[in-house]
Each structure stands twice: as structure tokens, then as C-alpha cells.
Amino acid sequence: MPQRLTQLPSHTQADLLLILTTLLAGAGWIFSKEALQGFEPVHFISIRFILAGLLLVLLGYRSLRRLTVTEFTQACKVGGLFSVAMILWILGLNYASHVGIGAFLTSLGVVLVPIVSLCFGEKPDRSLWLSLPVVIAGLGCLSLDSHFIFGIGELFFLLAALLFAVFFVMNSRYSARIATMPLTAIQLLLTGIVAFSVSLFMEQQIWQQTASIWGWLLASAFIATSLRFYVQTQAQGMASSSHAAIIMTLEPVWTALFAAFWLHESMSLLQFLGCLLIFTAMLINRWKVIWQLIRPASHITS
After folding, report:
1. Where do the EamA domain residues begin and end (predicted)?
2. Domain count of the chain?
3. For each of the chain's 302 residues, which pLDDT tens digit applies?
């Protein structure tokens, strides 16, 4: 981490790292979409995460050796959950017709975080119940739009969102106790191994690709995966899951902007309204934490 960044307060460091995470994540949607022009979806995700995981294993070999059996087991548990979520996500990206809308559907995992937290003994805030009708209204706008078809790709995105919510809560808990490098390396490498095993039974292994396809894959592996998840795991260890989830809501916004610029996607009025309602629901869901962040600033200005 740059020295100037380390001199900032820890909460500010976490915020900046999480914003960087959302930018890398948004770019990753485009990298992956381009790579899918040549690779089968699960085969692609397996190569992407094996490469990303191996890089972090090499960089963090010493820290991996220092892991206890309990820490290694916890890292594998989160990694196994993440692998299933990523397989569902890449299948969604492969079959869905609109990347920007898919990003907002996947981001519903943020709304589901407090619901999942119930299973870990946390009590949900009233904002959760206020956000749910807004989510339903947003999904309703998408379903009513004649140009939008809710197909198998969108279903994969929603299932992935549920698993990402579970992963987010568990990862926030474990990242506070396990070093960032080994935790991230195990998660990524295990995801690649699981995906490759699934791909062997589901898909044809096509290795002969153009240089551009390999370029997109390498960008996905090292920029949108190794770097992105290392930064995210480090940031989550410095912030609560609720605080981190607020900033992570920026990911679908960046994704939609990147998709509009690179893939020339556009949204109808109903589609835009649906995505706006989903984004609003995410903010309502985190309003209590947002208000706590706003209050100190208002005291300082007054």
C-alpha cells in the first residue's frame, strides 16, 4: 500500500480501497464478457481463478505456511461457497442479454446481507423491511418492460446474489482474523479448481484462442480477480460488513457505465427506473450506517 495512503485514518483507507474494488469489479464484467467470445463460461472462470490464485499463492507463500488448521478450514469453507456463486454468476453473464441490468440484479446481494446476518445472530434494522418493497418495485419495472426478458441468465444472477450475500457476511468475519493474502489466495485457487472440475463434465475444453481473447482472460485474472479480491479482502478486514456493503453498491453503477461505453448498451425508461429503484433499495437498506457517516460531517461543518 502506498505510504501516503497508510498515513490516512483506517476508515478512510478502507473507503478508498472499497471504491477501487468497485471500479475493478465493474471493469471485470467487461473483461469477462469479451473473454466469453472464445471460452466456454465455466472453463473461462476456472482458468481465470486458477491463474489469479496461483499468483497470490506465489506472492504469499510464507503467510500461507503460517496458517493454522482452523484458519485453513475457514478459508476453504468461504472459498467453496464463493466458487458456487462465481459459477452461477458466469453462467448468468453468458446467457443474459444485458450486462448493466445483470449487474444490478447481482447487486441485490447487498440487500440480502442483513437477511443472511440473521442466521449469524444479528438483528436486522427497520430499513431492511423498508427496502424490500422498493426492490420488488424495481424488479416489477424490469419485468414489465417489453424489451427486457427475464430468462435463465437473470435467474442465475439472482441465485448468485443470494450466495454472494452469504459470502460477504462470512468473509467479513474471517478476514478480521485471517491474513489477507492467504485468505484471498485460498478462495481464488479453490474457486478455480471447483470450476475446472465442473467444466470437465459440462463443457468442451477449447484452448486455441486468439491473442485478444487471451488478453481479456489475463486482464480478468490479474486485474479484476487477483488485485480486486486482494484489495477487497484487505478493506473488509478494516471495516464492518454493513459499512463495506454501502460502498460496494457502486459496482453496478460502474458496470452499467462501462457497458454503455464499451458494449454500447442502453436502457429504456422502465429499465432505468427498475435499476434506480434497486439502487435506492440498497441505500435504504444501509440508511442507518449512511446517517452515522453523515452526522460527523454535519457536526464539523456546523
Report:
1. 14-143, 152-284
2. 1
3. 555 555 556 667 777 888 899 999 999 999 999 999 999 999 999 999 999 989 888 888 888 888 888 888 888 999 999 999 999 999 999 998 889 888 888 888 877 877 787 777 666 666 667 777 888 788 888 777 767 778 899 999 999 999 998 998 888 778 778 887 888 889 999 999 999 999 999 888 888 899 999 999 999 999 998 888 788 877 777 766 556 666 777 888 889 989 988 988 888 888 888 888 888 887 776 666 566 655 655 454 44
Q: Give me the domain span that covers residue 280.
A: 19-301
The answer to whether residue 269 is domain-embedded is yes
Q: How far apart are CA 58 and CA 62, in angstroms?
A: 9
Domain for residue 32, yes or no?
Answer: yes
Residues 256, 28 contacting (CB under 8 angstroms)? no
- DSSP per-residue codes, the chain: --HHHHTS-HHHHHHHHHHHHHHHHHHHHHHHHHHTTTS-HHHHHHHHHHHHHHHHHHHTHHHHHT--HHHHHHHHHHHHHHHHHHHHHHHHHHH-S-HHHHHHHHTHHHHHHHHHHGGGTPPPPHHHHHHHHHHHHHHHHHHH-TT----HHHHHHHHHHHHHHHHHHHHHHHHTTS-HHHHHHHHHHHHHHHHHHHHHHHS-------HHHHHHHHHHHIIIIIIHHHHHHHHHTTS-HHHHHHHHTHHHHHHHHHHHHHS-----HHHHHHHHHHHHHHHHHTHHHHHHHHHHHHHHH-
Tell me whether residue 8 is in a domain: no
Residue 71 · residue 259 · CB < 8 Å: no
